[in-house]
Design a protein that fits this description.
738 residues; alpha/beta; Arc Repressor Mutant, subunit A; Rossmann fold; 5 domains; 8-stranded mixed β-sheet; 30 helices; 46% helix
């Protein structure tokens, strides 16, 4: 075996060199599972002489796929490029583009993301006169997604609907599927479900893929849903060399239809499976590891395993109990400043984790008060920004003129005088006539069509449509001869997009244009590294990219604020878990579901995942009271805290754990904390205030936002326009209101 494999420990080596057949690797957090998968692939190629093109490795994010490929390239060199490696969605998209025609999919199908799906559902609800307040589009989409993951099509869903709510959703579901088919599009659930439909309906296609891949490896197996499990079984069905890697203790995505039974029942489904446990942890200190194990060992229905480490015990886990959430936030901010100023860690090495997004409010306000730089994971993703979506929609429509969502997005961008009603009428005509929106627009623009389905438009609207169609026809003719970046340049030039941004959003035009340039750079870079750099391949790459792949997400000099769900797979030297309270962690829904323990067990796993993100220091904080759902509520300490042994935990002052009574000292501290936060967050000006600037003259305040140690004031000046100013520099003088 090559020298690099000598870096493996005994259990890792057993996993790497395991014989063929079903193999389950139970890998605890920080146990080196990525290394094991990479080395197993290298072992199969070098020692077992398996051609790389006959190996499929499935990951759950594009980032994980890239990291895996880099590791394998380090072991195998150029031959690693022959591997089939990617997410379930990316691999299924590849299969459907090659072989999807028997189930009615052209090779040019579009992939609709969440924003596209929401647009579709909103339009359908409007068409059916469904109140979006009673049936929120996001909730409707969630129900449709769940049905697809359960392999229930719209007809079956309608037959099984047993309530008015489900009956309404079934009507939306039917039209939603019809709209996807008309647009030649699929959503993310379809990528999986329609691949399974292809395999079930055309066994010869399934057999061809099952024969091709001698070995199939699936990472994060505890996160697979029913459809993904069935796909893995089909792909590995011929040779039965299925390797799954995962950890039932880290199964926290049931709300995404992940089914923990896939990993718990693996040995029942494959009685001859080899099982290898990776229990040595390389990430965390002894105290952190023992505390985390004490929480997870009380979980039910888990394979017996216990993580251990050769790392030193390090610092004890610190518990902090505040009287109010504001005090909790200020404690975290103070500790962050103390650690950073003491040179113990850089801001980027610190993460604050929480169960719900709403918890970040008190933490953010405290960080503003104490001048702590931070970034929130889960802000507006690069590919969700309006200017990026505009240009991607243009490229999608150039590629597929049946893409109704793309058509409706760009037909009036930049503004051409084509209203939403006109666009909707054109799309409706296209659906009725069975033609593309572009073809329907051509017929409407001519104004002499005999079909009653084609809308009769005013002269101005016909002229505006004609201008748009001239643009689309011109750039579509050029798509085969131009690279993606060059095609994007051509679109930008023809629609004069930079001028459009400057005219309609001058305050943010520079930032938005930077995003446009970033998209162009992404396209150019894609052409440099991909062998198949077609427009179709680029659009597929963009559609499949996850939020962790956001090119604008890197902010190396800031503390990370992140939900516990989003933190899975990450690690930080210092971790704060805020809100260790009954009702937050565990969440109140899990408490209400008792005595059914399913949700409570997942809450325990969520806590465990958060604790095992920490490498050197772990803080568990809570507040006795916090403002939630419109009122101040008292919260007992989380039941998970009681599981942690006394010898592994301490308080900031090295004191014993505090009880559940509020002390006078605590009341004073809480009041002081609230005052500090309120002062920091209280704007100096209110909208409507008149102010004077030494250069711009008198203006009216439009908005005022607190920033660390400052105020950002937006002021409208009669002669100078709207300006955003920092009060520390602008020194605005308040004037009396007129």
């Amino acid at each position: 075996m090559p020298a690099p494999h000598n870096l493996l420990n005994e259990a890792q080596r057993r996993a790497v060199e395991a014989p063929g057949g079903p193999l389950m690797i139970l890998a605890g957090p920080g146990s080196g599972k990525t290394r094991v998968i990479a080395h197993r692939i290298a072992y199969l190629v070098e020692a077992q002489h398996v051609p790389p093109w006959r190996i499929m490795a499935v990951t759950f994010t594009n980032k994980a796929a890239r990291e895996m490929r880099e590791r394998v390239e380090g072991l195998l060199g150029a031959s690693a490029s022959e591997l089939m490696m990617g997410t379930f969605h990316a691999i299924c998209a590849h299969i459907l583009r090659r072989d999807g025609e028997p189930i009615g999919l052209s090779r040019d199908f579009a992939i609709y993301d969440t924003d596209d799906q929401m647009t579709l559902v909103r339009g359908i609800e409007s068409e059916l006169d469904i109140d979006p307040k009673r049936f929120p589009p996001r909730a409707v989409l969630s129900a449709i997604s769940q049905a697809k993951n359960e392999q229930r099509g719209p007809d079956q869903f309608q037959r099984q609907a047993d309530s008015y709510y489900e009956e309404v959703i079934s009507r939306v579901y039917l039209k939603y599927e019809a709209a996807l088919r008309r647009a030649g599009a699929v959503d993310f659930d379809d990528l999986l479900g329609r691949t399974l439909e292809l395999f079930d309906g055309f066994p010869e296609v399934a057999d061809r893929y099952a024969e091709r891949y001698l070995h199939v490896l699936v990472d994060e197996f505890q996160d697979t849903n029913l459809v993904q499990f069935r796909l893995a079984r089909v792909l590995a069905g011929r040779h039965r060399n299925l390797t799954v890697v995962g950890d039932p203790d880290q199964s926290i995505y049931s709300w995404r239809a992940a089914d923990i039974r896939n990993i718990l029942n693996f040995e029942q489904d494959f009685p001859d499976a080899t099982v290898v446990l990776l229990e040595q942890n390389y990430r965390s200190t002894g105290h952190i590891l023992r505390a985390a194990h004490a929480v997870i060992e009380r979980a039910e229905d888990r394979p017996e395993k216990r993580l251990w480490t050769e790392n030193p015990d390090g610092s004890r886990v610190i518990e902090f109990e505040a009287d109010f959430s504001e005090e909790e936030g200020l404690f975290i901010a103070s500790e962050v400043n103390r650690l950073v100023r003491g040179g113990q860690v850089k801001p980027a090495g610190i993460a604050v984790m929480y169960r719900t997004n709403a918890q970040s409010r008190a933490i953010e306000e405290a960080f503003l008060a104490r001048g702590v730089r931070y970034r929130i994971v889960g802000g507006t993703r690069f590919y969700d920004r309006a200017e990026v979506r505009d240009l991607i929609a243009y490229l999608r429509l150039i590629h597929n003129e049946y893409d109704t969502v793309a058509f409706r997005r760009v037909v009036n961008v930049p503004t051409r005088g084509i209203g939403e009603k006109t666009a909707g009428d054109v799309v409706a005509a296209a659906a009725e006539l069975g033609i593309s929106p572009i073809a329907a627009a051509h017929r409407a623009a001519r104004g002499d069509d005999e079909s009653s389905a084609v809308p009769r438009l005013a002269q101005r609207s016909r002229q505006a449509l004609a201008v748009f169609l001239e643009l689309m026809d011109a750039v579509t003719r050029e798509r085969e001869s131009l690279s993606v970046a060059a095609l994007l340049d051509r679109v930008l030039a023809r629609i004069r997009y930079k001028e459009y941004l400057e005219k309609h959003d001058n305050d943010h035009a520079e930032t938005r244009w930077e995003n446009v340039q970033e998209l162009r750079a992404v396209a150019a870079q894609y052409e440099e590294v991909e062998r198949e750099a077609s427009l179709a391949a680029f659009l597929e790459e963009v559609a499949l990219v996850s939020d962790i792949d956001d090119p604008g997400a890197e902010q190396p000099d800031a503390v990370t604020l992140i939900t516990l769900h989003a933190a899975k797979g990450l690690e930080y030297p210092v971790v704060f878990i805020a809100g260790m309270e009954e009702g937050l962690l565990p969440h109140f829904r899990a408490i209400e579901a008792m005595p059914d323990r399913t949700q409570m067990e997942e809450e325990r796993r969520i806590c465990y995942v958060g604790m095992t993100r920490a490498k050197e220091r772990l803080y568990l904080t809570r507040a006795r009271r916090r403002f939630m759902y419109g009122s101040v509520r008292a919260h007992p300490a989380s039941r998970f805290l009681a599981d942690i042994p006394e010898e592994d935990v301490t308080t900031p002052n090295g004191e014993a754990r505090r009880g559940d009574t509020m002390s006078p000292r605590g009341l004073r501290a809480a009041a002081a904390a609230r005052r500090e936060v309120e002062m920091a967050a209280q704007p100096s000006f209110s909208p409507g205030d008149r102010v004077r600037h030494s250069t711009f003259g008198v203006g009216v305040v439009v908005a005022c936002v607190a920033t660390p140690g400052d105020q950002q004031v937006t002021v409208a000046f009669p002669d100078q326009g709207v300006k955003k100013l920092l009060q520390s520099f602008a020194r605005l003088e308040p004037l009396s209101r007129e």
